[in-house]
Design brief:
The complex is a heterodimer of chains A (237) and B (222). Helix content of chain A is 79%, strand content 0%. With 237 residues, chain A is mostly helical. Chain A is flat, with a radius of gyration of 21 Å. The mean pLDDT of chain A is 84. By secondary structure, chain B is mainly alpha-helical. In chain B, helix 3 packs antiparallel against helix 7 and helix 5 runs antiparallel to helix 8 (194-219). The mean pLDDT of chain B is 88. Chain B is built from eight helices and no strands. Helix content of chain B is 83%, strand content 0%. The chains are: A mainly alpha (237), B mainly alpha (222).
């Protein structure tokens, strides 16, 4: 039953992504200022939204793990699996953002990269979560989960500071397209394509997130079984 | 009230006084970085005024990592770390004592290094020089406060020396930016560093509070 649900969801996701691709490439009009290159927004912005959402999931997982690790060990493991899955899949989507961004920037601004508020914040966020994944790799055992959860919280604390510091420093990235004051907003003819792409990439991201979560839960189970078996092996001797 | 803190602090200072391990290695290392940068970029005139702040901060940052690693690694011998875990005193006091001790070491290194720095880079202070006495301690505290915390976090992992740099530097980026901008503004006198000093102070408050609150969690993690 569970497998059937996942299969159906996968088919739905792929269909949604094909439809979103069609909308972005064929249906949406060219941008008045930027022409064709503007279409990269249908990939750049949805990926950023997915990445930030998943980092938030990771933060919630970290806090949940720390809160429940003493009294509810089983629930703590679930929180930890969410924290890991969120960070890992988030890093992948963040990498997509950091790849599509410079490609777009090269055409729109004439430069690949600039140390502006949002670019720097995204890069620092990526660095922090990569270091989080490295910590999970280098440390081991249940203490690793606690240490990683603490680092996750520290990383999240850092993000607003990085953002503000870079806003005072310099800013090149355009003001937010959505809700960014007067003159912002998207032409109504582009909105459907944008909406479909957000939906499609969100569905895809959640699909990968759930797969990663299941894999982590399985490996937690195996580790618990091994620990159990080792315990019995010792007691029977 | 602060008896545990005082005991740890005196102990660390006494060890350092007798061996001078941390200060000498940091001093030599940061001196080397200053010389290497000076050779690599051939600083002179306005250009040297502009990069000097950044070089000083980065040199301090790299140098202090060695001391930060030693701060906990030296407690592993004879199971001192395990003994410290069993002490009924709050872990926050231990954390504060370590942070204050290492803050003093790095500050001593900076004070000794500064004259050489001014000579090698032919610096003169165009802004308000006394503000440096505010910027450098604030930046150093940001580095050492976080560094001691993350060193305790990575102490029981494989590759701990490398891991400390890998997790400390990304988190330290905003403080480094503020420290470099403030120092450069003071040296060149082109703009007002107040905003950056405020930001450094805010960073220190936020991360020191978080470290004090979460130190017991990582120290007793098992």
């Amino acid at each position: 039953m569970k497998k059937l649900a996942i299969g159906l969801y996968a088919i739905l996701t792929v269909a949604l992504m094909i439809w979103a691709w069609y909308q972005a490439i064929y249906v949406a009009p060219n941008d008045a200022m930027q022409g064709e290159i503007f279409r990269i927004i249908y990939y750049h912005v949805p990926s950023a939204m997915v990445a930030f959402l998943f980092f938030a999931i990771s933060l919630v997982g970290s806090i949940g793990y720390l809160a429940s690790r003493r009294n509810l060990p089983e629930r703590a493991q679930i929180f930890d699996a969410w924290a890991l899955a969120g960070a890992e899949v988030g890093v992948v989507f963040c990498t997509v953002v950091l790849t599509t961004g410079p490609i777009w920037g090269r055409r729109a601004w004439g430069i690949w990269w600039t140390w502006d508020a949002r670019l720097t914040t995204t890069l620092v966020l990526w660095l922090i979560y990569v270091s989080y994944l490295l910590l999970r790799r280098f440390a081991s055992g249940p203490q690793m989960q606690t240490l990683a959860a603490v680092l996750g919280i520290f990383g999240a604390l850092d993000v607003p500071i990085v953002y503000m510091s870079n806003r005072w420093w310099r800013t090149q990235h355009p003001a937010p397209v959505f809700g960014g004051g007067p003159g912002s907003g998207m032409a109504s003819s582009m909105l459907p394509a944008f909406g479909w792409n957000v939906l499609g990439w969100m569905a895809w991201g959640i699909f990968i997130l759930i797969l990663r979560y299941n894999v982590e839960r399985k490996s937690q189970e195996i580790a618990a079984q091994e620990a159990e078996a080792a315990l019995h092996g010792v007691s029977s001797m | 009230m602060f008896r545990a803190l005082w005991t740890h602090l005196v102990k660390d200072l006494r060890i350092e006084w007798r061996s001078l391990d941390a200060i000498i290695s940091m001093l030599f290392f940061s001196g080397l970085v200053v010389v290497l940068f000076s050779i690599a970029f051939d600083p002179s005139g306005v250009f040297s005024q502009r990069i000097a702040g950044g070089v000083l901060c980065v040199a301090t940052m790299f140098a202090s990592v060695s001391a930060l690693n030693q701060a906990w690694a030296r407690e592993i011998r004879h199971q001192v770390l395990d003994a410290q875990r069993m002490v009924p005193a709050p872990g926050a006091e231990l954390y504060l004592a370590k942070a204050i001790a290492n803050f003093l070491f790095v500050t001593i290194v900076q004070v000794i290094l500064a004259p050489f720095f001014f000579i090698f880079y032919n610096l003169h202070v165009a802004g308000q020089g006394w503000l440096l006495a505010l910027v450098l301690p604030l930046g150093t505290w940001a580095l050492v406060g976080n560094g001691i915390f993350f060193a305790a976090l990575s102490i029981r992992s494989r590759n701990r020396e490398l891991l400390l740099s890998l997790i400390l530097f990304p988190i330290f980026i905003p403080a480094l930016l503020a420290m470099v901008q403030a120092t450069t503004n003071i040296l060149t006198g082109e703009s007002d560093p107040t905003l950056w000093i405020k930001m450094l102070a805010g960073y220190d408050i936020i991360f020191t509070t978080a470290s004090l609150l979460l130190f017991d969690v990582i120290f007793h993690a098992e």
